[in-house]
From TrEMBL:
InterPro entries found in the cross-reference section: Acyl_CoA_acyltransferase (IPR016181), GNAT_dom (IPR000182), Ribosomal_N-acetyltransferase (IPR051908)
Family matches, as SUPFAM superfamilies: Acyl-CoA N-acyltransferases (Nat) (SSF55729)
Pfam families found in the cross-reference section: Acetyltransf_3
Record organism: Tahibacter harae
Name of protein: GNAT family N-acetyltransferase
Superkingdom field: Bacteria
N-acetyltransferase domain boundaries: 16-182
C-alpha cells in the first residue's frame, strides 16, 4: 500500500488547508465514516470496522490513478486537525464535469467550514481543471447539504425517485448542478 492516496495540490483559505490524504489519516477517516450522524444520508452505511477504511483507501487509490477522483483532507490550520473530506469524483475531463462529495466531522458543523472548503475545491475545479459543470447528488431530507450547495449557486435540477437503497432504506436524490458562470465565489 502506497502512503499517499494520490497527490492533489494544496489549497488554502483563511481557516483551512486542503491537502492530499495519506495512510496516517486513516484513523481520522475511519472516525468520520463511522459517525452515524455524519453518515445519516450517505451512499453507504456508517463503517463499523477499521478495516473498512483500509479497503476504502485501496479502492480510492485505483480511481485516483485514473484521475477520476480528486480527494482532499480538510485540515483546520489553527490546530492541524483533520476535520473532513472533500472530493471531486466521476471527473470527466472530456465532458468537463464532475460530482462533488463532502463529509465534515459533526463536532465542527455550523461554523462555515464546509462553505469555505467547497469554495476552494470549486475554484480549483473551474479554474485549474477547467470543468464547466459540477454536480451534487443529495438526499432531499439532508437540509444542511442542500443549504450548502444552494449558497454556492447550485440549482436543483430535478428529483430522482427511489435512487438509493442503503441499509434497507430507500431514498430519493435531489440532483443539483452548478455551471462555471453561476458559481458564487463569495
Ligand atoms: C453537509 C455538511 C458538510 C454541511 O456542514 P455545515 O457545517 O452545515 O455547513 P457550513 O460549514 O457551510 O456551515 C454553515 C452554517 O454555519 C454558520 N456559520 C457560522 N460561522 C460561519 C462562518 N464564519 N461562515 C459561514 N457560515 C458560518 C452559517 O450561518 C450556517 O448556518 P445555517 O446553515 O444554519 O444557516 C455537514 O452537515 C456534513 O458533513 N454532513 C454529513 C455528510 C453529508 O451529508 N454530506 C453530504 C452528502 S450529499
Amino acid at each position: 500500500m502506497h502512503d499517499l492516496l494520490c497527490a492533489v495540490p494544496v489549497l488554502e483559505s483563511p481557516r483551512l488547508q486542503l491537502r492530499s490524504i495519506d495512510r496516517g489519516d486513516l484513523d481520522r477517516i475511519y472516525a468520520l465514516h463511522s459517525d452515524p450522524r455524519a453518515m445519516r444520508y450517505w451512499s453507504f452505511p456508517a463503517w463499523t470496522a477499521p478495516q473498512q477504511a483500509r479497503d476504502w483507501f485501496l479502492r480510492q487509490q485505483h480511481f485516483c490513478a485514473q484521475e477520476e477522483v480528486w480527494p482532499w483532507a480538510v485540515v483546520r490550520r489553527e490546530d492541524d486537525r483533520l476535520i473532513g473530506l472533500f472530493t471531486l469524483f466521476a471527473v470527466n475531463r472530456l465532458q468537463r464535469r464532475a460530482e462533488l462529495g463532502y463529509l465534515l466531522d459533526s463536532a465542527h458543523w455550523g461554523r462555515g467550514y464546509a462553505q469555505e472548503a467547497a469554495r476552494l475545491v470549486l475554484a480549483y475545479a473551474f479554474d485549474a481543471l477547467e470543468l464547466a459543470r459540477v454536480e451534487a447528488d443529495i438526499d432531499p431530507r439532508n437540509s444542511a447539504s442542500c443549504r450548502l450547495v444552494e449558497r454556492l449557486g447550485f440549482q436543483r435540477e430535478g428529483l430522482l425517485r427511489e435512487r438509493w437503497h442503503v441499509a434497507g432504506e430507500i431514498a430519493d436524490t435531489a440532483f443539483y448542478g452548478l455551471l462555471a458562470r453561476e458559481f458564487l465565489r463569495g
